Amino acid sequence: MRLILVGCEYAGKTTLANEIVEWIGRTMGSSRTFHDHFSIPNAELPEEDKEPYAALSPYLRQLFQLYMMNHHFHDTFYGKPDHNLIGFHIEEAIYGPLYYGYAADGDIGSPLARRLEGEIMQKAPDTVLILLRAQPEVIVRRMAEARHEWQIVQEKDVEFVLQRFEEEYEASILPGKFALDTSDVPVLETLAEFAVQIEPLINRADRQRIQAHQDSHGQ
Fold first, then answer.
1. CB distance 6 to 87 below 8 Å
2. Fewer CB within 10 Å, N- or C-terminus of the chain?
3. Percentage helix, strand, coil, to 5, in the chain?
4. How far apart are CA 213 and CA 216, in angstroms?
5. How far is 45 from 154, CA to CA, in rounded Å?
6. Computed over its alpha carbons, how large is the radius of gyration of the chain?
7. Distance CA 188, CA 207 (A)
8. Where are the beta strands (DSSP E) in the chain?
9. Mean confidence (pLDDT) of the chain
């Protein structure tokens, strides 16, 4: 399965991603965690490395972000049954110009996102883009209730950032995509809706995995 899960900070990406990993395991017999390396500082860095990473100049930030994205295009990733990403090129298109200090020209923002999607189409045209939506007041409430240590999105920008995710989602050239609204919805209900929406987009290899798993468990 190849998924790219995107949405404004606090829309619930990590929470849903963890449930999707469990769902893939139950449905197909094996699964891998999502790659979540694409924010600054990225969530999987050791704590002692986050501050120096966040303090990099905009130029060095952009270089490292481009390295991280291109690294995840490697054939070794696409040779595995699951290659699932959080944020990735869509988040970079929005947060790069808005928060990371990149100059507003060159291969950034939407042009970069569409270029990378062209590469995705060559590597894995069955990739599915999933946008997580949430109402602005829900995002703001979640910020107040459980603020991230390295929060990126500022409260004053929430409506703008939500709109930018909608724009990038609509502009995406990936043929498989759908949106889920997480506003005041229990995560297991969102997961159930994910299972409905993903079903017609499941590729042949994953259908074979599902069948093999069912056969092995006498289903």
1. yes
2. C
3. 55, 10, 35
4. 5
5. 22
6. 17
7. 22
8. 3-7, 85-86, 128-133, 176-181
9. 93
Least confident of 41-45, 70-74, 118-122, 128-132: 41-45
Number of domains in the chain: 1
Q: Tokens at residue 168, please?
A: 């990038």
Taking the C-alpha atoms of residue 70 and residue 9, their distance in angstroms, rounded to an integer, is: 23
CA-CA-CA-CA torsion sign (98, 103, 104, 107): negative
Q: How far apart are CA 88 and CA 13, in angstroms?
A: 12
Beta carbons within 8 Å of 147's beta carbon, 6+ residues apart: none
CA distances to 3, 82, 198 from 183, rounded to whole Å, are 21, 28, 20
216 — pLDDT class (breaks 50, 70, 90): confident
Place of tokens 């390396």: 37
Q: How remote is the C-alpha of 101 from its chain's centroid?
A: 21
Residue 84 belongs to domain spanning: 3-216
Report the pLDDT value the prediction gives residue 219, as an integer from 0 to 100: 65
The C-alpha atoms of residue 177 and residue 214 are separated, in whole angstroms, by 26
Whether the CB-CB separation of 81 and 1 falls below 8 Å is answered with yes
**CA nearest neighbour of 65 among 124, 114, 7, 116:** 116
Distance CA 191, CA 67 (A): 32
Here the CATH number for the domain that contains residue 171 is 3.40.50.300
